[in-house]
């Protein structure tokens, strides 16, 4: 895995949406990584899902089972470091200014895979 990719600032980020449990595990995995930063993350009001901001164009090649990636360019989601979340009915888990603006999709893909494996292992121990 090439983790040397530089994530540019987003002026119209795509959003990867995942179930909250898997997303929270992925945030922890990325934070424990060797210097890899997690970008800004949104959660919905019900805390059912998390939305990771990723660089524009990520949606074109996103194919991680259990997640979706939505293109936002031209749809009004413009991220600037301010406290208000860009999507109604959401709030920041990690707001711009407290995190990198966008998460490297290669890093996120690996973290979501590891999170899914951890959750399956934990659930099989019940």
What does this structure look like?
Residues 79-98 are annotated as: Disordered. There is one protein chain. The chain is of the alpha+beta class and 126 residues long. The chain has one domain. The protein is 26% helix and 19% strand. The chain contains two helices and five strands. The chain has helices at 20-32, 105-124; strands at 14-19, 41-44, 49-54, 68-70, 90-94. The protein has a five-stranded antiparallel β-sheet with strand order 4-1-3-2-5. Strand 2 (41-44) and strand 3 form a beta hairpin. Helix 1 packs across helix 2. The longest helix is centred in the C-terminal third of the chain and has 20 residues, at 105-124. The model is unreliable at 1-8 (pLDDT under 50).
What's the SSE blueprint?
Elements lengths: L13 E6 H13 L8 E4 L4 E6 L13 E3 L19 E5 L10 H20 L2
Antiparallel strand pairs: 1-3, 1-4, 2-3, 2-5
Helix pairs in contact: 1-2
User: What is the CA-CA span between the terminal residues?
Assistant: 33 Å
What is the element string, with H for helices and E for strands?
A: EHEEEEH
* Helix and strand composition category: alpha+beta
Mean pLDDT: 81
For the biggest sheet, the summary is: 5 strands, antiparallel
- Overall geometry comes to globular
Number of helices: 2
Strand content: 15-25%
Tally the structural domains.
Answer: 1
DSSP strand count = 5
Strand order, biggest sheet? 4-1-3-2-5
- Are there runs of 5+ residues with pLDDT below 50, and where? 1-8
Helix content: 25-40%
Radius of gyration: 14 Å
Region (Disordered): 79-98
